[in-house]
Amino acid sequence: MAGPGVVLVLAWVGAVLGPVVCVFLIRRLLRSRRVFLARSLGAVSAIAWALGVWAFLIEPATLTVRHVTVESAQWRGPPLRIGVISDTHVAAPHTDVARIERLVARMNSERPDVVVLLGDYAGGHEPAATRARPEQSEILGGVEAFRGLSAPLGVHGVLGNHDSWYDDAAISAALTRAGVQVLDNRAERIARPGRAFWLAGLADMESPREPPMVSATLGQVNDEAPVVVLTHWPDPFVEVPGRVALTLAGHTHCGQVNLPLFGRLVHASRMSERWACGLYDEGGRKLFVTGGVGVSILPVRFRAPPEIVIVTLRRPRP
Is the confidence at residue 41, as pLDDT, over 70? Predict the structure, then answer.
């Protein structure tokens, strides 16, 4: 299978040469007086060209700021604005260090109370040892660019499967250098005026060290302050108890391609089909799944735009 970089090059070639080839064929058909066939070819080619250019070259390079309000009966204290960033996939097509720097500036302009990073900072599937030095530097530089994030309650993160495949220790160290608190099966109490809360981060499901341990991590919470769980995969949400105010996850890319009528054809994990994208309420338990920023496997997004998210977590209105 061609790598995503090769596919992106082919997309550019098709964008440039496709109209030329199409015009040549239409002219040949018109000269032979096959007008209906020429018009049909022109219409189909124009639609296919426009969709291909949008899906491979335009939408993956955009950035949407999504605002979501979550009302949770388990939340206490004033509303909390959480900035959510996931699946940046640096060194994959469409994402380099400069894009992360622009993304950081965009997040800072939203002035969140706290920022959480939900994993998959590395692009590609290969371990670090097999990558060229410039690619290694780009990936770690993209992680360290999170140093520019500014939030009064700090920046906190977990790792994803691409980070585990790449080198989870190197990614974790780069996050630490960037001032990010890495919560690997660890809960941290965050003090704030009005009411403290906990962030409980879960390990990656493909971590070489330990699996996500929901019960053990939540066992570190030693008071009645509300809890927000951070996980790269949505799958551990099956174990999250009702005591948690909100679980935040990434990994799914919202399917990366969301076709009209057919919907999302590809699911990144067993539970990603059930919890593919957006806000879910499972008997009062709240889960929000972000589509993230980058791409994986293919350099394409269609009706699943790259996003960063501002989640406002609050008590239900009376």
Answer: no
- pTM for the structure as a whole: 0.92
The pLDDT-based confidence of 38 (bands split at 50, 70, 90) is: low
What does the pLDDT look like over 251-283, one tens digit per residue? 999 999 999 989 998 899 999 999 999 999 999
Nearest CA to 268 out of 240, 298, 244 is that of 298
CB 183 within 8 A of CB 110: no
Structure tokens at 45: 């080619």
Instruction: Report yes or no: 47 and 55 within 8 Å, Cβ to Cβ.
Output: no
